[in-house]
Amino acid sequence: MKFNQNITEITFDDVLLLPGKSDFLVDNEKKVVNITGRVTKDLFLELPIISAPMPGITTAAMAIALGKAGGMSVIHPFQSIKSQAEQIRIVKEANVKVAGSISFNKNTTLKDVEILLKAGADLISIETGHAHNQQTIEFISKIKNTFEKIRLSASLVVTGEATEALIKAGADNIRVGIGGGSHCTTRLVTGVGRPQLSAIEECYKVAKKYDIPIISDTGIKYSGDLPKAFAFGAETVMIGGLLAGTDECPGEIVEKEGKKYKYSWGMCTDTAYKHKTPFEKLKPEYILQLIKKTIKKIIGRADSDSFREKDFEEGVEALVPYRGPVTSILNQLRGGLIRSMWYLGTKNIKEIAKKTRVVMVSNSTPLENIPRI
User: Fold this and answer.
1) What's the rounded Cα separation, in Å, for the pair 251 and 286?
2) Is the per-residue pLDDT at 250 higher than 70?
3) Which residues contact 106 (CB under 8 A, 6 or more apart)?
4) d(CA 77, CA 98)
5) What does the pLDDT average to over 262-281?
6) Quick one: three-class SS letters along the chain?
């Protein structure tokens, strides 16, 4: 065993950003501030938010709504390539940006990539829980050598050496984050991961030498987490759980004791792996059946012939409160980021990383941060 560092690593709740001198009025921040974020060297988003390729979050409906707001979505890979390509075509008809995803495994081919590109994907995301492996590196290199103008996103990494290896293979951006998502249990199941801000910081130090953008992918709970991610070097953020329960997410609304919910599931769950048809077709009866089976597993009464296809899972599934249209959440995130930049005295995303001063906080500070009435 080799201990990797002598300092405590940090994530969003461990820091606050110090305000800086602002030379523009608070009423003018929407006119002055530019929140455009880079996805690759030649792909930009007016809203620096990307929705995660989770089957319970991102299909065509989410991609269109987020695209119209200025962001972008990665259509989930838990379906056939043909089905994913059809969703990409639907999104492109709305004249917005969208990414396709390739869940890399032994059966993945270059033909899959070609189909998504022909459907109109602006970016191809190579989806793996751990991108720093020889097969993924070789596959990325093969893709770049085959498709001259392709934009490639590589996920997921949390170290500088992984970042450099993927960039040298041909990745046009690096998605940083392992195990900190709202639906993820990777750190509990495997003991592997890294606090998000420390991961961004190390990967950014490498990526900036090649002028390759970083996507922060995990742990966003509030709008105030966006500028924290940008302060450590990210240029866009990927969000999953924060968008759950909205109209644009797949699945029906479920009513329980007078309250409305939608079912939400992570990428590495049985639900994601087992069901590869469009998730809009899920029926309330089936959703309730899944809930009952999930409860049985939690309390240890699952039958031996359980519906699980894997020996373990790295994600959870549950009912989440219904939240209405996703635009209300996106507007709050946009507004919070813009107001933060007035406090920081910064006018664009890159200035946040250059100018912002960060302070570590005590364990009691997160309690002080929240309303207490």
Assistant:
1) 10
2) yes
3) none
4) 13
5) 52
6) CCCCCCCCCCCHHHEEEECCCCCCCHHHHHHHCECCEEEECCEEECCCEEECCCCCCCCHHHHHHHHHCCCEEECCCCCCHHHHHHHHHHHHHCCCCEEEEEECCCCCCHHHHHHHHHHCCCEEEEECCCCCCHHHHHHHHHHHHHCCCCCEEEEEECCHHHHHHHHHHCCCEEEECCCCCCCECHHHHHCCCCCHHHHHHHHHHHHHHHCCCEEEECCCCCCCHHHHHHHCCCCEEEECHHHCCECCCCCCEEEECCEEEEEEECCCCHHHHHCCCCHHHCCHHHHHHHHHHHHHHHCCCCCCCCCCCCCCCCECEEEEECCECHHHHHHHHHHHHHHHHHHHCCCEHHHHHHHCEEEECCCCHHHHHCCCC
- Answer yes or no: are the C-beta atoms of 31 and 344 closer than 8 Å: no
Report yes or no: 221 and 12 within 8 Å, Cβ to Cβ: yes
Reported pTM: 0.86
Residues in contact with 188: Cβ distance below 8 Å, sequence separation at least 6, in sequence order:
none
Confidence of residue 184 (pLDDT cuts 50, 70, 90): confident
**Residue 195: which residues within 8 A CB-CB, separation 6 or more?**
9, 10, 11, 14, 180
pLDDT at 6: 64
Rg (CA), the chain: 20
* Cα-to-chain-centroid distance, residue 37: 15
Domain boundaries, the chain: 12-246+325-359, 253-321
Q: Are 213 and 39 in contact (CB under 8 A)?
A: yes
| pLDDT on residue 311 | 53
Please identify which residue in the block is written with the tokens 């980021």: 337
Burial (Cβ within 10 Å: 0-12, 13-18, ≥19) of residue 66: buried
Statement: 12-246+325-359 belongs to CATH 3.20.20.70: yes
Cα separation, 43 vs 56, whole angstroms: 26
The pLDDT of 33-39, averaged and rounded, is: 98
Are the beta carbons of 346 and 337 closer than 8 angstroms? Answer: no
Q: Are 247 and 326 in contact (CB under 8 A)?
A: yes
Mean pLDDT value of segment 114-120: 98
